[in-house]
Amino acid sequence: MVPSKPRNSAPKSAPGRAAPRRRPAPVVEAKPTEDTRKRKLSWQTGVFLLVIAIVLVTFLPSINSALKQAQQIAALNSEIESTKSEVQGLEEKNENLKDPAYIKRKARKDQYYVEEGKNAVIVTNQEAINGDDSDTDRPQRKQAWYLELLESIQEVGNTVEKG
What we know:
Layout: H1 34-97, H2 100-110, H3 126-130, H4 145-162
């Protein structure tokens, strides 16, 4: 048998109680190195980017709808402006139609009305009177217009009967 060592002191705890545990020595943090700083920075950057991504995903649909609404508003505003200009033109035309002199001018020019006691002369080829006989601007017809119309109607009738 091996002799046991004698105790130097009395037990620290009362009989029947366990001895208190010793606390471990505190861990001393190592000074951050450049590599750990980079990792910490990249971790912080990753969290920041994740937060930005969440915010974008959250607000992107509302931003998109706001942009569409802004485009629709701009289109409607331009339509309102064109309608206002059209209304202004119609109001001017309405004012002109209240003027009897304007109505007489329009009747003579557009409808070829003639005042009583005057003779109407309609010039059909103004260029021939001025000495300009160039008919290159107008296409020449092979036959009269009413014959072309009759042929066109007959062709349409034939295609309908065949179909």
